[in-house]
Design a protein that fits this description.
- By secondary structure, the protein is α/β, with parallel strands linked by helices.
- Helix 5 packs across helix 17 and helix 12 packs across helix 13.
- The longest helix is centred in the last third of the chain and has 31 residues.
């Protein structure tokens, strides 16, 4: 019995109490996880929204399914709380997760209260959705480190979106397109402040027996078995290895992952009771979990309303009034980020395309979007991943078809990809990250900058001496250019011709001299005018790096040791 008194999903050191906490304790725990000021009143029904967010999502290809009758009408008339969950399966989110952040940002722009939910508890179980095998269980230390990393990303990205800088132009266009929409009379105030919560704060104090008694009794196994994520795993189950007593080598689904939908469903129950949330959003593969949450709300509350927990739950930021018992809850899913050939966007030869700069530099992030987006998908991704007004995206699409406006520069190959890469990099990594990406792109590829802020994509141009290199820029391209290392004594005072041969950029000194004479050799993006040019201390960028170019495409980063 001593073991049974521990929290459902946490060790003793995380256990807040061996019995259900009071409403005040629950609210206090939730307050410690917020990264922005909570709304001063209940998000549900407090003010009319600025725009019809469902129509907005639909117009940008961000709407897959809607669960709940009358959702579009309700959300176009009443502001509410909306949440999207992010399980800490890795130290960083990846580009596929960006859709959830973008969707939350559009809800905020339309006047709803966005909540990003960290799965500090559910991440200890593992979501079976979209998986053919069991997820590996992570240690508590790994999960908490992942939570911290993902929290940092969400704070930065949702904070940028909350400024209104990215969404203002598109929202103004939406308002002009529908004068009868609430958006037409929207105020100039910034979107509601985002909030970041962690579901370990309410799951941690609940004991296993309490969860079975208070939540599990409302779940119906038949409905749980009907979920696609469960059925696909059940259909793959076989007899397994009779000698494998641990069950590790058998197929199918474990009770742990089978119960995941119940945990995620209770998230929705808790947030609707205590935070004024009536909408859950997620990828299309999450529809089963979303429906499970809606069903659990209906069973635990009777009619889908927001009856408060013991003592009455707060509404997420000061209001002590619980949600209206007559309020309804809805689920909205967006498509997964896939290319026209059916492959997922977000995988590269080196693995996932991470959002954290520590795992993938802004330069490599930018380059992935630039080089991996085919013409057939770039317009779709501009709508889904950026906040550009649709009129601007339509203009780009017409230019791609050769139907650009008279007097404007003709479309050049990859202009749309440069615009996509520039806009998404600026949102994910900020202005400084985009600047670093463009400088590194110019250093390695001779120009090819990307548009930002809705402007036209910059024209590819040769690098110039004015585009001074720095050590950070060169370090950013290190993984994308051939690299060689030489001792300082072998570099300083050495002839450039000799170096080109030594590092393998030219087959012979004669070939290297001819290339110099033809203007085809550059040192740190500056043309080498003479075959007698030698390297000096001032040529070492950051005191340790040199970028050599032999022709337009052959570049090498020389590290001086």
């Amino acid at each position: 019995m001593q073991t049974m008194r521990r929290g459902v999903l946490c060790s003793r050191k995380r256990l807040v109490s061996s019995s259900r906490p009071s409403s005040a304790a629950t609210a206090a725990a939730a307050a410690t996880t917020e990264t922005a000021a909570a709304p001063t009143s209940s998000p549900s029904g407090s003010t009319p929204p600025r725009a019809n967010v469902v129509a907005l999502l639909r117009s940008r290809g961000l709407l897959n399914d809607v669960a709940g009758e009358g959702a579009e009408d309700a959300l176009s008339k009443t502001s509410t709380g909306v949440y999207c969950g992010f399980d800490p399966t890795a130290p960083s989110l990846h580009v596929g997760n960006l859709l959830g952040i973008v969707a939350l940002s559009w809800f905020a722009a339309a006047g709803h209260v966005p909540i990003a939910l960290l799965g500090g508890a559910t991440g200890r179980v593992g979501d079976p959705s979209g998986r053919s095998t069991e997820r590996p269980l992570l240690s508590d230390e790994e999960i908490e480190a992942n939570v911290a990393g993902i929290r940092k990303i969400l704070e930065e990205l949702l904070g940028r979106a909350a400024s209104g800088e990215f969404t203002a132009a598109a929202l103004a266009e939406e308002a002009g397109a529908s004068s009868s929409s609430p958006a037409s009379s929207s105020s100039s105030s910034p979107p509601p402040a985002p909030r970041i919560l962690n579901n370990l704060d309410w799951f941690g104090p609940i004991t296993f027996l309490e969860f079975l008694r208070d939540v599990g009794k409302h779940a119906r196994v038949g409905a749980m078995l009907s979920r696609d994520s469960v059925r696909s795993r059940m259909s793959s189950s076989g007899a397994g290895d009779p000698n494998d007593e641990s069950g590790k080598n058998s197929e199918g689904i474990s009770f742990t992952e089978f119960a995941y939908q119940l945990l995620q469903g209770y998230d929705f129950v808790h947030l609707s009771r205590n935070e004024g949330v009536t909408v859950q959003i997620g990828g299309s593969d999450q529809m089963g979990n979303v429906v499970a949450g809606l069903d659990l709300i209906r069973r635990m509350k009777g009619d889908g309303g927001g009856e408060g927990e013991e003592g009455g739950g707060g509404s997420g930021g000061g209001s002590s009034a619980p949600s209206s018992p007559s309020s309804r809850c809805y689920g909205i899913t967006f498509p997964l980020l896939t290319k026209s050939d059916g492959t997922k966007m977000g995988k590269s030869a080196g693995g996932a395309v991470w959002l954290a700069a520590e795992k993938l530099s802004p330069f490599k992030f930018y380059q992935y979007l630039l080089s991996s987006t085919p013409d057939a998908d770039v317009v779709k991704f501009l709508k889904m991943l950026t906040f550009l007004p649709l009129s601007k995206i339509d203009e780009v699409e017409r230019a791609m078809r050769g139907e650009g406006e008279p007097g404007r520069a003709p479309y050049r190959p990859n202009d749309a990809q440069r615009l996509l890469a520039g806009e998404v990099t600026r949102f994910v990594h900020g202005d400084r990250g985009l600047e670093q990406a463009l400088k590194a792109t110019a250093a390695l590829h001779g120009g090819g900058g990307g548009g930002s802020g809705g402007g036209d994509a910059a024209a590819p141009s040769p690098p110039s001496p004015a585009a001074a290199l720095d050590a950070n820029t060169l370090e950013a391209v290190a993984g994308d250019a051939p690299t060689a290392a030489r001792p300082r004594s072998a570099v300083l005072g050495a002839n450039v011709v000799d170096l080109l041969v030594d590092v393998g950029l030219q087959p012979s000194k004669g070939a290297a001299r001819r290339l110099v004479a033809g203007g085809g050799v550059r040192l740190n993006n500056v043309k080498v005018e003479s075959a007698e040019r030698v390297l000096e201390e001032g040529d070492l960028v950051g005191g340790r790096l040199v970028l050599l170019a032999s022709g337009k495409k052959n570049k090498l980063l020389l590290k001086v040791e």
